[in-house]
Amino acid sequence: xxxxxxxxxxxxxxxxxxxxxxxxxxxxxxxxxxxxxxxxxxxxxxxxxxxxxxxxxxxxxxxxxxxxxxxxxxxxxxxxxxxxxxxxxxxxxxxxxxxxxxxxxxxxxxxxxxxxxxxxxxxxxxxxxxxxxxxxxxxxxxxxxxxxxxxxxxxxxxxxxxxxxxxxxxxxxxxxxxxxxxxxxxxxxxxxxxxxxxxxxxxxxxxxxxxxxxxxxxxxxxxxxxxxxxxxxxxxxxxxxxxxxxxxxxxxxxxxxxxxxxxxxxxxxxxxxxxxxxxxxxxxxxxxxxxxxxxxxxxxxxxxxxxxxxxxxxxxxxxxxxxxxxxxxxxxxxxxxxxxxxxxxxxxxxxxxxxxxxxxxxxxxxxxxxxxxxxxxxxxxxxxxxxxxxxxxxxxxxxxxxxxxxxxxxxxxxxxxxxxxxxxxxxxxxxxxxxxxxxxxxxxxxxxxxxxxxxxxxxxxxxxxxxxxxxxxxxxxxxxxxxxxxxxxxxxxxxxxxxxxxxxxxxxxxxxxxxxxxxxxxxxxxxxxxxxxxxxxxxxxxxxxxxxxxxxxxxxxxxxxxxxxxxxxxxxxxxxxxxxxxxxxxxxxxxxxxxxxxxxxxxxxxxxxxxxxxxxxxxxxxxxxxxxxxxxxxxxxxxxxxxxxxxxxxxxxxxxxxxxxx
Length: 662
Description:
Jelly Rolls; 29 strands; Glycosyltransferase; about 20% strand; alpha+beta
């Protein structure tokens, strides 16, 4: 393959090989497609269908319909939002006949064998961009009347459902009902709710004693003063000040304190109160927090002694959800993407790039205390799902390293608290072999995990001033060399199976990129006198020689490094550029190797701009997220993805590193 598109459509045809211009092109496209987006706030009925901490939704119809007869069926309906169309897999387990419909099509029917065992049944679906309507049907038998629906990879594809039908207003959760035996499936595919089949939760006011805080907003069509009518026991501030003061035209906020009964009577002449953020689903004109004492009242989206802000309705919560495709999410590929953009912002003196990354990170870290609360109380949060999951290095290391790039001193207490938690997980909880090497819970070792751990440990050592994380990172690197290095080619196998005691011998390109890139992160901060530094420098030079020998004539490296018939892979190519450029910049090479490495890096950059980046700033040839196999055919079949976040940021970073090395 010589190119992913006609040569005249390449970035090089438009911009030449200008690193600054190509970096800017990639960054502008990414920000335009993924603009900053706030979390979506939805009300949630605490008595409704809930998920467990692993993202499994429990349809406990035996509890909700105790009078149901054998043969009766229950129905639950919910909408799942997808920012982009995709294929996905789900699990369903039950002890009774169950069916799942998606967008009008039946996609799953349980089998008798799985019903008896209660094991997961796995099924694949195609999800549309936008809302996808799921319908779950369960039949009552003598041994069961419930089921659990879960995405097969909930930490990667978090599923938060929204009540369908226009009159529900986008409230979070499922609607559900009991259908008599033989009752056909009602028409649940439109916006009109087919009453009386679906339950209508009772809506009542909060009935709780004590003093509460209330927060509302209002809009002024023109400047002026407002006459407020309130019971004597209510205190009231407008925009943090005197409620009698004249106000400019535009939006304003009002904070109140008093009993729930008194707060409900507050009125302002000529203005209509509404929640301080758009709320989907049932809500009141103001949100409440409490009962409060004399202590601090938390900001919206924060947790305090009395919980969180919520509607003044009995049993109703207010929960945030991330529904943008990429902005405001914590994932390891975004950690890679935004790291590259952050460095690009600094190198190009582009304040907009830096501000974009900072806003993303601050939005994620600022909501995390609430996300932990939400997980504990409701089972599966609508934000920060991967870091709340925290069961693997993938869940924390990459984005955690980015977080500390944005706030290296931990000045933000949220950042410091999250960093300490991640460090404890890595160094105390992550599974390891008897020799001390990181391993996964399925008894495998992946080259990827060097990137999922080492860059964070480097940043955490800088944060704390403690060299122990660097010692730990250095030991991990050398363990991984022992377990995965292929000396005959001086490259890394992708993975090792501990059960069989063998690595797979397959040099997957991005796995190799993760290793040498992470090694370059470590060598930058490892003290010159560190006892492991000579061995790590030797490792870095061995890998460099191995990769130099396998570079394609066009400048890129192949999906399988030693298989020239496999496609040209962009993310690994970018990581080679980064590592080679750093090797030259920091003096890790002898003179001859530095000359060869820089020539290879320049050739690789030229190849990316001619073959993999088009004039609109789209990136081609980035391998999709990978599992593992002992078969080369598996890695050949791993297709590349268009504008995949595993590659965009690292290509930007490659341009930055090459600029700094030249």
